[in-house]
């Protein structure tokens, strides 16, 4: 009888215990897996604090914390703006220990850009202490606990999260400089020698000139304006770059004597009035009289710009003014190679142009210092405040030596700019204003306004371009309309280029370089190029889409008629733009332009409709009669028996 093999029966393993996860509220966002969540946290931390590869790796967290960090319920990603909220119940972040030695600042390949790129959104992010977030990481604080105090907000554009556009710091905390305890070298600021021709002009001779240009000056002991380049008593190597100009502009004639005397000044003038050369020439004179900058020292001249396009424009002018000197000029801005900028800054430069966000970034990381800065310029101060850089400007003020010379330039003079001037400038500063207090258009630009339908604008634009020559700049309101219009014009055989905020900085610079070449050229742009685009020979500006505000309209048409030249501005106005017809009529009349009859009719129709709506809203008894309530439904008796009735 054969033996039968009997195998042992193995007991079945119990199924793995599934830990129920708390369900997220419906409609609040998307749930991420643990792996994706860790990647998001790492990207958020890198965007806020810098590169993690240059600091020692943190010690592994306990198992419970590791599970909590990979918990998909620990974060909620909400639509619109990416909001990464730390898991509830985590311990507060450990306070960073004082650093024994200054760490080498991190170097990133790219940084935040401009117009939204560099605007700092400090809502809810934890403050950055003097030791910095990298020190917290060095002391093995989990990333999730560092984010546990608040919310990190990143741009969420067109359905995609753009981590590269996130600001590096939520709040800027720079240590205060003990100026009273420092022994600062003396600085010379007065370089002005009045020409005999300038000194011999009587006030009666200057009155027609000041009346024509609506000049208003506020201050004591004001010098007389310089009306001719022969009256500029400076070395030939400094005045040689001005040989291409016939005479100084109004803002230059008034600003040069004041700034060459070493006095603080605020200049209010329209766009395209030559403000860059107005503060640029005194800056070159000031920097040439100081000792050369050594490696590791900060710049002598600091010029802060709100946008990278304007910063590059200022760089071009300053390079032209310093061509016969030994001064080194440099421009830093977001969206470019940060490593190259850091290396060049550490070598030392005398003239430093920077956007607000990138400058604060370099100061925060200790790449440069402003202790040698004695000539400080804020350009487009009104635009700086509009972009939310007011707090950063106050931080910069405390980083520059108190006996500095400060110049501020703006296109408008609202109360916000007045308050900023009071914070920055000395009480004895001089204010030079060209034109009235209201924002006015360049009088050298002829304005043409056409009232039409939306569907007729492309055909009218095509007919207009057939009559125009030279460089033509066409403005649209959105990136989508910019791309759509450029494609439509290309389909019609027009050699057109476009520039908008979706393009990289390299693509923008290449497009602008092609547009600046001599000859006829056509460029479609959004408002990202309205302020900062400086092409001296733009023949005409076309507002294909009328801007949202009259201030944007004035800045757009200011791209032509620059440096004393004349230009034309063509605008298409539809029924959707009727609410701005009144302001447009005022601007045209102030500039001495002929207002078309259909624009006046559009204004009257809009005002009549508005008056009718207001009359209905404020009429007696309007809206006081209560609405009749619907009759209640008849109550039906329950006839069916229930189980309790048995």
UniProtKB/TrEMBL annotation:
GO MF terms, alphabetically ordered: ATP binding; hydrolase activity; nucleic acid binding; RNA helicase activity
Acidic residues: bias regions: 101-120
EC number: 3.6.4.13
Enzyme class: hydrolase
InterPro entries: DEAD/DEAH_box_helicase_dom, Helicase_ATP-bd, Helicase_C-like, P-loop_NTPase, RNA-helicase_DEAD-box_CS
Keywords: ATP-binding, Helicase, Hydrolase, Nucleotide-binding
Record bears the keyword Ion transport: no
Domain of life: Eukaryota
UniProt protein name: RNA helicase
Source species of the chain: Euglena gracilis
Name of the gene encoding the protein in the UniProt record: DDX5-17A
């Amino acid at each position: 009888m054969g033996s039968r093999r009997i195998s042992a029966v193995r007991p079945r393993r119990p199924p793995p215990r599934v830990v129920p996860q708390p369900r997220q509220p419906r409609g609040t966002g998307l749930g991420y897996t643990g792996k994706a969540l860790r990647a998001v946290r790492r990207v958020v931390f890198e965007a806020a604090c810098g590169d993690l590869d240059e600091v020692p790796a943190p010690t592994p967290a306990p198992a419970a914390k590791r599970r909590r960090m990979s918990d998909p319920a620990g974060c909620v990603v909400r639509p619109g703006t990416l909001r990464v909220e730390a898991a509830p119940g985590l311990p507060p972040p450990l306070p960073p220990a004082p650093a024994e030695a200054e760490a080498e600042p991190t170097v990133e390949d790219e940084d935040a850009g401009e117009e939204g790129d560099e605007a700092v959104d400090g809502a809810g992010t934890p403050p950055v202490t003097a030791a910095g977030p990298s020190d917290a990481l060095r002391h093995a604080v989990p990333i999730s606990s560092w984010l546990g105090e608040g919310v990190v907000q990143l741009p969420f554009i067109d359905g995609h999260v753009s981590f590269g556009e996130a600001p590096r710091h939520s709040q800027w905390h720079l240590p205060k400089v003990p100026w009273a305890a420092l022994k600062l070298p003396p600085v010379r600021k007065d370089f002005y020698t009045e020409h005999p021709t300038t000194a011999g002009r009587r006030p009666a001779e200057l009155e027609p000139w000041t009346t024509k240009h609506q000049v208003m000056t506020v201050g004591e002991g004001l010098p007389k304006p310089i009306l001719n380049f022969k009256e500029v008593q400076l070395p030939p190597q400094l005045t040689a770059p001005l040989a291409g100009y016939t005479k100084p502009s109004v803002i230059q004639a008034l600003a040069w004597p004041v700034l060459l005397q070493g006095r603080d000044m605020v200049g209010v003038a329209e766009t395209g009035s030559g403000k860059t050369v107005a503060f640029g020439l005194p800056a070159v004179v000031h920097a040439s009289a100081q000792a050369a900058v050594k490696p590791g020292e900060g710049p002598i001249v600091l010029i802060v710009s709100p946008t990278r396009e304007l910063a590059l424009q200022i760089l071009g002018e300053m390079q032209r003014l310093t061509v016969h000197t030994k001064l080194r000029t440099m421009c830093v801005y977001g969206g470019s190679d940060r490593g190259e900028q850091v290396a060049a800054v550490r070598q030392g430069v005398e003239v430093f142009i920077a956007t607000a966000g990138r400058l604060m970034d370099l100061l925060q990381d200790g790449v440069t210092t402003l202790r040698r800065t004695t000539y400080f310029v804020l350009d487009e101060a009104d635009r700086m405040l509009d972009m939310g850089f007011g707090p950063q400007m106050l931080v910069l003020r405390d980083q520059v030596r108190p006996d500095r010379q400060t110049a501020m330039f703006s296109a408008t003079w609202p109360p916000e700019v007045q308050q900023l001037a009071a914070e920055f400038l000395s009480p004895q500063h001089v204010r030079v204003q060209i034109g009235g207090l209201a924002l006015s258009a360049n009088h050298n630009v002829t304005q043409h306004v056409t009232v039409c339908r939306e569907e007729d604008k492309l055909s009218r634009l095509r007919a207009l371009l057939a009559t125009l020559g030279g460089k033509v700049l066409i403005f649209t309101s959105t990136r989508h309309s910019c791309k759509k219009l450029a494609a439509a014009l290309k389909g019609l055989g027009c050699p057109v280029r476009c520039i908008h905020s979706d393009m990289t900085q390299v693509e923008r610079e290449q497009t602008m370089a092609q547009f600046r070449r001599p000859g006829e050229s056509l460029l479609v742009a959004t408002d990202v190029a309205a302020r900062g685009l400086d092409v001296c020979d733009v023949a005409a500006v076309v507002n294909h889409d009328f801007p949202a505000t009259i201030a944007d309209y004035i800045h757009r048409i200011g791209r032509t008629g620059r440096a004393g030249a004349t230009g034309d501005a063509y605008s298409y106005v539809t029924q959707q733009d009727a609410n701005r017809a009144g302001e447009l009529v005022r601007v045209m009349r102030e500039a001495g332009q002929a207002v078309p009859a259909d624009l006046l009719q559009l204004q009257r129709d809009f005002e009549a409709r508005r008056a009718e709506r207001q009359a209905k809203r404020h009429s007696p008894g309007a809206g006081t009669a209560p609405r009749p309530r619907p009759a209640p439904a008849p109550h039906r008796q329950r006839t069916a028996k229930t189980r309790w009735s048995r």
